[in-house]
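User: structure tokens for this one?
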Amino acid sequence: METSNIRVKFSHGDIMIELEGDASTVLSELRSLKKDGTGKLLEFFGILPAHSSTTIQPHHDGKVTHPPAQHIDLKNFPPLNDIVLRNLPKSEAEWIAIYGYFASNGGKKTFTRDELWNQYKTSQRNTKGRRDNLTNNIKQAVSKSWISNISEDTFSLLDEGIAKAKEIVSREKAPKKRIIKSRNKKTAKESKA
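Assistant:
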């Protein structure tokens, strides 16, 4: 009897678990993690509601499917202006996740680079420097698996991007700004000498 090997990557926010091996063993371990480990851990931190049920089914090709991510209704999401006023994202890549969320209607449709840039305009954060760095910021969001590059100019918001947008807007305070002080301070006497 031939057994099929599968690899399962499960991630939720900053938590990532990867299992690889015989399909029945991997699925058994994944169910065990959900029941006894990750499931309770995620419930404890309020990421998953208590007693949530997740079904995991192997495809005929050995891949495992997960239920679709829960999309946040835009009606329950704060307006973009509120996010801007509270300055919640820590980086431009996080802004891309937020803008991607709005441009994709909560992850329900694809969006283009121009639609992302329109979000910058809407929030009045459209500067020449941000326009020049847009490609790099998009690449960072892609590398973090928040968005996916479908074609040269078309993107989709991934489950991790939806989770990141939700995490950003749930922050109570804006991140603290780092103040970089120069180490080469001269006193008035030193500069005159």
